[in-house]
Write a structure and sequence with these properties.
Chain A: It holds the Pfam family MoCoBD_2. The structure holds two protein chains of two kinds. By secondary structure, chain A is α+β, with helices and mostly antiparallel strands. Chain A is 23% helix and 24% strand. Classes of the chains: A alpha+beta, B alpha+beta. The complex binds FE2/S2 (inorganic) cluster (2 copies).
């Protein structure tokens, strides 16, 4: 564990270290890379929703100007499917047979000298299909069903008996729709072969997995794949898997012997790289008249693909949300002829929390109780399934502090009881938690002769502020100024890192970097162990602490020696050390490792005549453990809030009921929040250093989004008296 | 059976010759007439600061100035810009010497992944030149053509407020326009 003195809970909001590159347009995103002789690849997608390809005619496309190659299942050759991952199987290898599993499936790739020529050639590929009826409905009896897909179904106590005996019961069903991640940077792969080595610039949130999956696809050793992704134009989950287009860009590069650039078009972003799946949730809550929960039963049915998996534990949020002796959660997936769903910021949790927190609001109204009071009364002071103490939990503090900051006491309980400027005013709240997740991670730390440091790990920067907080954590562990530290990310040749997902990156890479820096301090004390000229002679790593570019004796801080002096005297250009962090289990810790907690408070204004809804204010109070950088952390939360407002009021991927064709696959038709949709958002941090993690942090990448949809739905009910149990909530539902 | 087809062009479209004047520098080009200004800047001239977010005119990531007006470079054919004054993010500050708007974006953390940022900055400059930066609400409205999926909107507004003047719709005469900016 840490031996450095513990810094403040909320770290200084230094500017992003990668900020100057980003504001000058000089940060290199995958589609900014170009190589001599590079050609362009454009995808052709299925216009059938299910069935088989009966003919595919590429003659015209091959004669099209500038064309270098046209790939289909007839000439792609065998490619292997990538490895099993913690998120499920890898996507199926592309272009392996004539089966059509969903509308928009990739059926060919046109490669040409220019993008314009490749686009023209792609249009010239003629494909005939034998259509079969597409299975698109969650309840279609033909759909294969997966029960308990993630082994997270909960069974605690005796729910049927408790529900039957409950004094007050809520039993409601909530619907959510497909949402699409749509990071601003279209997913891009620029692939080239240098001899037997495949080098890809790729939009990924998981460079280490990318290497393994591409190696598997082409049957080459993992060391022969080099993934480079120093900057990625967002992801929100879309970069968590090694998609078919990535493999196809690499294949096209091999076939043509030229570097290949493949940039997904915006419409292709709706079918090629995942989305939040639609779902239906039934929530039953039983309570005493005093508002103590006696039973929770939460069942969720969400969509999955025919031949692919996605990680979307939805109902399971109810297993840990509240102190309740009797709990059942059931997750079920229906396999449909749809593009594969995939993690989208807050996967499963955002939807599960939406249903639970709406149901809690309904329960509060049935009890005639303040919704805040109901949450406080059922606070899960210990981890409900195990009874273990949490590694940190300031959930009540978030709720209470939020109420104070928001002015919750001004709220009058009756729906439609608050008005201002001719508009209906509604206050809504949601309690939120995000599941803990952390994976093994490695890092390497180096100090150079000039006293500066370089630390690296294969994690990725996707807007999360990774470069910045990892520089801060490394600087702290080495006793340097942040300006003296550079952090390397986004390269599969760096020490292995897990995904930028599950709100886990800062904890994983931060801890690994911390261990590497600790080991580096040890390497310095080893170097001077027998050095008669060093004041630190004979010290072990535990005897010294890093400060001001030097190591100093703990027992006598006046005795110290700088890294520069040590390296110079030993004629070393630099000194490096590796570190690895492995998360401890609940058993090893004797406590339940906690994710972030929080409270979301929202004020909406609804036009009583037109039903127009506006979010007027949104407040998030977040227990994220130690906050390394207040500025970037705040941005994570407001960014999540914007996403949550989108989920609540705007976002819906609409597909044709017959074929599954997505009807609104542009950013003009798929509505995401723009600047004028967003009110002033307030963010406050609460809580304390998390005990499960050497650097004290908890992930906050996703909790910003979670809870907005129910808080807004509850506020709309408070404003209008209309309980809308589906998303997005639009004005037509209020008329 | 459904068919997906388009009658294919037997010959290449004729090449077009023109000169793009970007940030005060001339670039003679001979290209496919279908080339967009965005792809010309990004792929042909290597000015990769201008970003493609949608290629359909819906996101603002590709915003540049042409003759002092903000335009979506993905909806503009490069050949239409012969001899016109084009300004891109590369014509503003450098990492060591940021333009005031870039500095304000950095200080206010008005970006996350940074992908929409050059477009936001070019729009912000346009906004001030147009006198549309007089109040937070006005900024929100007139910056709404620039999507930021990371959701940095609030900080973008704060950054622009910081630089925009207080009178005349936020026109900030001391803020340098992009080179090749005003006609
Ligand atoms: S790329 Fe031009 S508006 Fe989106
Ligand atoms: S900073 Fe990522 S889209 Fe705006």
């Amino acid at each position: 564990m840490t031996t450095i003195s513990r810094p403040r809970l909320i770290g200084p909001g230094i500017n992003r270290v990668d900020g100057p590159l980003k504001v000058t347009g000089r940060a290199p995103y995958p589609n900014d890379f170009a190589y001599p002789g590079m050609v362009h690849a454009v995808l052709v997608r299925s216009t059938a929703g299910a069935g088989r390809i009966t003919e595919i005619d590429t003659t015209a496309a091959e004669r099209s100007p500038g064309v270098v190659s046209v790939l289909t299942h007839l000439n792609a050759g065998p490619l292997a499917r990538g490895p099993m991952t913690p998120l499920g199987v890898s996507p199926p290898a592309p272009l392996q047979d004539d089966a059509i599993l969903h509308y928009g499936q990739i059926v060919a790739v046109a490669v040409a000298e220019t993008f314009e020529e490749a686009t023209e050639a792609a249009y010239a590929v003629r494909v005939g299909y034998a259509d079969e009826p597409a299975v698109l409905d969650l309840d279609d009896p033909r759909a294969k069903v997966r029960t308990n897909p993630w082994g997270r179904d909960a069974d605690r106590g005796d729910v049927p008996v408790a529900l039957a005996g409950a004094e007050v019961v809520v039993d409601e069903t909530y619907l959510t729709v497909d949402n699409t991640n749509n990071p601003m940077g279209p997913l891009t792969t620029v692939a080239r072969w240098e001899g037997d080595t495949l080098v890809v610039n790729n939009s990924t949130q998981w460079a280490s997995l990318e290497g393994a999956a591409l190696a598997a696809a082409f049957g080459i050793p993992e060391e022969s794949v080099h993934v480079v992704a120093p900057y990625v134009g967002g992801g929100f989950g879309a970069g968590l898997r090694v998609w078919q287009h990535v493999v196809l860009a690499a294949l096209a590069a091999r076939v043509t012997g030229r570097p290949v650039k493949l940039v997904l078009t915006r419409p292709q972003m709706f079918t090629a790289c995942g989305h939040r799946p639609k779902g239906r949730q039934r929530v039953r809550l039983g309570a005493t008249r005093e508002g103590a929960l006696v039973a929770v039963q939460h069942e969720a049915r969400t969509a999955s693909a025919v031949d692919d998996d996605n990680f979307e534990p939805t109902a399971s949020v109810s297993a840990t949300a509240y102190a309740c002796p009797n709990v059942i959660t059931r997750d079920v997936q229906a396999r449909l002829n749809v593009p594969v769903p995939n993690s989208m910021r807050g996967p499963g949790t955002a939807t599960g929390n939406y249903a639970l927190e709406c149901a809690m609001d309904e329960l509060a109204y049935r009890l005639g109780m303040d919704p805040l009071e109901l949450r406080l009364r059922n606070d899960a002071a210990v981890h409900p399934p195990t009874g273990l103490p949490w590694s940190s939990r300031a959930h009540k503090e978030c709720l209470e502090r939020g109420a104070e900051l928001f002015g919750w006491s001004r709220r009058t309980h009756e729906p439609r009881s608050m008005r201002e400027d001719g508009l209906l005013v509604g206050y809504g709240l949601a309690a939120v938690g995000y599941p803990w997740f952390r994976a093994r991670c490695s890092a390497r730390a180096t100090i150079r002769r000039d006293g500066t440091a370089y630390v690296c790990s294969a994690g990725t920067e996707i807007g999360n502020g990774a470069y910045t907080v990892l520089v801060q954590l490394s600087a702290e562990a080495l006793g340097l100024d942040p300006g003296q530290v550079t952090f390397g990310l986004g390269d599969s040749t760096m020490p292995m890192a897990p995904q930028t997902g599950g709100s886990s990156l800062t904890g994983a890479v931060g801890s690994a970097a911390h261990e590497a820096c600790r080991a580096l301090v040890g390497a310095f004390t080893d170097l001077v162990a027998d050095d008669g000229d060093s004041p630190l002679r004979g010290c072990t790593a535990d005897d010294v602490e890093p400060a001001d570019g030097a190591l100093r004796r703990r027992d006598d801080p006046a005795v110290h020696e700088s890294y520069r002096d040590i390296l110079a005297r030993h004629h070393r250009p630099d000194l490096s050390a590796d570190g690895e962090s492995t998360p401890l289990t609940a058993d090893e810790l004797g406590m339940a490792p906690a994710g972030a907690f929080g409270a979301k408070y929202v004020e909406v204004r609804v036009d009583p005549d037109l039903g127009r809804i506006r979010v007027a204010r949104a407040l998030s109070v977040i227990d994220g453990g130690r906050i390394v950088n207040e500025k970037t952390a705040r941005s994570q939360i407001i960014g999540g809030t914007v996403g949550g407002i989108g989920m609540a009021l705007f976002e819906e991927t609409v597909s044709d009921p017959g074929s599954g064709r997505i009807a609104n696959a542009t950013l003009g038709d798929y509505i995401v929040p723009v600047n004028a949709d967003i009110p002033d958002m307030q963010v406050e941090f609460a809580g304390s250093w998390d005990r499960a993690n050497p650097v004290g942090t908890k992930g906050i990448g996703e909790i910003g989004l979670v809870g907005l949809a129910p808080a807004i739905a509850n506020a709309v009910f408070h404003a209008t008296g209309r309980r809308i149990r589906s998303l997005p909530i639009t004005l037509d539902q209020l008329l | 059976m459904t068919l997906q087809a388009k009658p294919h062009a037997e010959e290449s479209l004729p090449q077009t010759e023109f000169t793009l004047r970007v940030n005060g520098r001339d670039h003679p080009l001979r290209t496919d007439a279908r080339l967009t200004l965005l792809d010309a800047l990004h792929d042909r001239l290597g000015l990769t600061g201008t970003k493609k977010g949608c290629d359909q005119g819906t996101c603002g990531a590709c915003t540049v100035h042409v003759d002092g007006r903000r335009v979506l470079s993905c909806l503009t054919l490069a050949a239409q810009c012969d001899e016109r004054e084009i300004a891109t993010v590369e014509g503003l500050g450098t990492e060591d010497e940021l333009h005031p708007v870039q500095r304000a974006f950095l200080e206010h953390d008005a970006f996350q992944c940074g992908y929409c940022t050059p477009g936001q900055i070019m729009s912000a400059l346009g906004l001030m030149a147009e006198g549309r930066a007089g109040s937070p609400d006005e900024i929100r409205e007139y910056m709404s053509g620039n999507i930021c999926r990371c959701g940095a909107y609030q900080n973008i507004v704060a950054a622009i407020r910081d630089v925009a003047g207080t009178e005349d719709g936020g026109r900030a005469d001391d803020v340098p326009q992009a080179e090749g900016g005003r006609p």
